[in-house]
Design a protein that fits this description.
Blueprint (H helix, E strand, L loop, with lengths): L6 H8 L3 H31 L3 H37 L3 H36 L4 H14 L3 H16 L4 H24 L3 H24 L14 E3 H33 L3 H17 L1 H19 L3 H26 L2 H9 L7 H14 L3 H14 L4 H25 L5 H24 L20 E3 L2
Antiparallel strand pairs: 1-2
Helix pairs in contact: 2-3, 2-7, 2-8, 2-10, 2-11, 3-4, 3-5, 3-6, 3-9, 3-10, 3-11, 4-5, 4-6, 5-8, 6-7, 6-8, 7-8, 9-16, 10-14, 11-12, 11-15, 12-14, 12-15, 13-14, 14-17, 15-17, 16-17
Length: 470
């Protein structure tokens, strides 16, 4: 017998202390994000022991993998939002049906994408401008890591299902399993077996398999409140429409953003391997700095989703303000500390000993850290729009951030001011700040309070509205 979501947890999200609710959801998400980032950070660390070219190759091709991941994440993001809203409305049966539809959509997508990308890898790496060793390294790394998409998406499905119920602890523990395996395999494959960049990719792939299998076993157990059932599954047209309506903007927006990152990396590559490596290291460290904002934004998405489903708009609004204050103050203080070069430099040196890379990476990291507080405005505002189902708004702003603000700033700084590689650094921080400001202004318009999809009811649901899967 499936165990229903506890009244205490449902009550905490809908009626309890908001600071406690935000922290209970956000802290595990932050830890989980850090754990997930350890895959790339571990690769970067150990490849730094081998050479700058390997690090440059990863920086160059990683956005390709991220394009596919972000498109698929649109499906699981939609699932998390819709499941949260169903649970808030106490439509638990429909939440379960939605989870199954999300699972099958996501897994089918991941297999198709992994196959196509594996075939297209040589052409993609060549188009990015990679040559000689970086070209061969890029092909080796990308062809292996894209094969982990089905496993990664299974982990993401588990995370979406659990997080929609207010459980962020178990996804964190699941990812910790994968990272632990990766921490063991990376030095084994790179240093002991000397498999180079292919060893780093293989370690990442193999590390995700135990977590994905564990996620599948747990979600298919009969005692799970939200359970995945393969036998007799049928797609439901109304659920697919909701997933597309909520998830497609996120999927397209995320992929368009990553395509922009890909082109940015291509622009950085013009300045040489040293600049590309510094850019990659700076971005990876910055992703750690901004994790609190990301975690709080994710928590707000869940809290807003459940309260939106329950019709409690005022509480969702109050949660937004509490979360924004928490995130902005923390990032401002932490960013000011980390922006000091004498603090940033030892962190950069942890990932590289190349004396040409270090000063560039320190300069980039210091600038981003100083303005990282804008990420709190961006991520928390994004969370309230996503939780209320208005996913098109944040992805539109993010697309503008990359394709208008960032490239326009890059052009101005490089062509008019002739700032060289520093044009890239300023393009990143200016575009981030502008997109955060616009999202925050849009929040005050109250657009997020409008309903986007009509949730199916257990009482009125048409059981015949299905599409069978052969």
């Amino acid at each position: 017998m499936a165990k229903p979501i506890s009244p205490e947890k449902r009550s905490m999200l809908l009626e309890g202390n908001l600071i406690h609710a935000i922290l209970m959801l956000a802290v595990p998400v932050m830890i989980n994000s850090f754990i997930q980032s350890m895959y790339n950070l571990t690769d970067t660390f150990w490849l730094g022991k081998i050479g700058t070219e390997s690090q440059a190759a990863i920086t160059l091709v990683s956005p390709v993998q991220n394009i596919l991941i972000n498109f698929g994440t649109g499906i699981t993001t939609a699932g998390s939002i819709l499941i949260s809203q169903y649970l808030g409305a106490k439509e638990d049966k429909q939440a379960n049906i939605m989870a199954n539809n999300v699972c099958f959509c996501s897994l089918i997508f991941s297999v198709v994408c992994a196959t196509l990308c594996w075939l297209a890898t040589p052409g993609i790496v060549g188009w990015l401008g990679a040559k000689d060793n970086i070209f061969s390294y890029g092909i080796s790394y990308l062809r292996i890591v894209v094969l982990d998409l089905p496993y990664l998406f299974m982990i993401n499905i588990y995370t979406a299902v659990k997080q929609s119920q207010g459980d962020t602890i178990r996804p964190m523990l699941l990812n910790m399993l994968g990272v632990t395996v990766n921490l063991i395999l990376d030095p084994l494959f790179l240093i002991v077996f000397r498999w180079g960049i292919s060893g780093a990719a293989l370690a990442t792939l193999l590390a995700k398999i135990p977590s994905a299998v564990t996620a599948l076993i747990i979600l298919t157990r009969k005692n799970q409140f939200i359970r995945i059932q393969f036998k007799g599954f049928r797609f439901e047209k109304s659920k697919l429409v909701s997933i597309v309506k909520i998830g497609l903007p996120t999927a397209i927006g995320g992929s368009v953003m990553q395509l922009g990152f890909l082109l940015m990396t291509k622009n950085v590559n013009v300045y040489g391997t040293t600049a590309t490596t510094a850019y990659g290291i700076g971005n990876k460290i910055n992703s750690l700095i901004t994790m609190p904002a990301s975690g709080i934004g994710s928590a707000i998405s869940t809290i807003v989703g459940q309260n939106f489903g329950a019709g409690n708009i005022k509480r969702a609004d109050k949660a937004f303000h509490n979360a924004l204050r928490m995130g902005a103050v923390f990032l401002f203080v932490f960013g000011m500390i980390l922006s000091r070069p004498f603090i940033a430099e030892p962190i950069v040196r942890f990932f590289t000993s190349d004396e040409e890379v270090v000063p560039l990476a320190v300069e980039y990291l210091s600038l981003m850290a100083m303005l990282c507080w804008t990420n709190a405005f961006h991520d928390v505002s994004q969370g309230i729009f996503q939780g209320s189902g208005h996913t098109l708004i944040p992805v539109t702003i993010d697309a503008a951030r990359m394709w208008i603000f960032r490239f326009a700033t890059l052009w101005f700084c490089s062509s008019v001011l002739h700032m060289g590689v520093e044009s890239v650094w300023y393009a990143v921080v200016v575009s981030n700040g502008l997109s955060a400001l616009i999202l925050y202004i849009l929040y005050w318009t109250g657009i997020w309070k409008r309903s986007t999809v009509k949730l199916d009811s257990d009482r009125s649901h048409n059981e015949h509205n299905t599409v069978s899967v052969n």
